[in-house]
Amino acid sequence: MDRFLKGEEQEQTRRKGATLGEDEGCPRKRPRGETPGNATRLAVPNWRHIRAEGLDCDYMVLFGKAEADEIFQQLEEKVEYFAGALARVQVFGKWHNVPRKQATYGDAGLTYTFSGLTLSPKPWIPVLERVRDRVSGLTGQTFNFVLVNRYKDGRDHIGEHRDDERELAPRSPIASVSFGACRDFCFRHKDSRGKSPRRRLEVVSLQLAHGSLLMMNHPTNAHWYHSLPVRKRVLAPRINLTFRKILPKK
Ligand SMILES: O=C(O)CCC(=O)C(=O)O
User: Which residues of this UniProt protein bind substrate (predicted)?
Assistant: First the structure.
């Protein structure tokens, strides 16, 4: 999980491609690749299926506004974020603050690598268990770890990266649950990065609403980088929870 503190160069992902999202100020446009009603997996009403070459995601609004507001408030009160060295990142020899706040929670006995250190997540707290159990009840997937990212406003962001750490259970999905400000979320294919990309696949751009769930299914993370770009017009905070299954160390 080193990359949570690395590669923080700002990725001003262009808002190419189509967008998704309709709640809490997210204007609704159907993304290319979304195939309502014809997917066999997660064939529950209200799922939107987002597909592109090697990209397999499902999106829905999981919590209504009142419940999402309550969860957001509890997260604000209960989550304890990293401080000190864990909230800083060294890029080309220079130290910077990570442009968001982060925390990890999970099962007892788990360890993971963060900024070159072997750490244990904090024990689960009720608000995180509540969200985790809702996602598990809906999807049938289990999770033993969550990364919490808090963005104080649209200047906070996360650069392009893949969640392809060795610690993740192979082929396991990542469940991303968002509360607070609606933010753009972009996928870029690995062959379409850099100044002279090998291929020019369109960026897949979503909007993640208050109370929403985005399931990032295998093999998305093998082929696509994702980011939460800077959006200076966003003034409100947002908290994102990514539930993961990580392998216990032998
Ligand atoms: O805040 C978000 O939606 C993105 C978080 C993310 O990219 C991650 O946890 O890997």
Answer: 92-94, 112-114, 164
The per-residue b/e assignment along 58-67, b for 16 or more CB within 10 angstroms, e otherwise, is bbbbbbeeee
Residue of the CA atom closest to atom 3 of ligand 1? 240
Pocket test for ligand 1, best of 242, 243, 244, 246 (most atoms within 8 A of CB): 242
Decide: residue 140, CB within 10 A, 0-12 exposed, 13-18 middle, 19+ buried.
exposed
| CB-based burial label for 155 (10 Å; 0-12, 13-18, 19+) | middle
pTM of the predicted protein model = 0.86
As given in the structure block, the two tokens for residue 158 are: 């996360």
pLDDT per position as a tens digit, 106-126: 999 998 887 677 888 999 999
- Rounded to 5°, the CA angle 63-181-204 comes to 90
Report helix angle 65-78 to 126-139, nearest 10. Answer: 140
The 3-state DSSP class for residue 96 equals strand
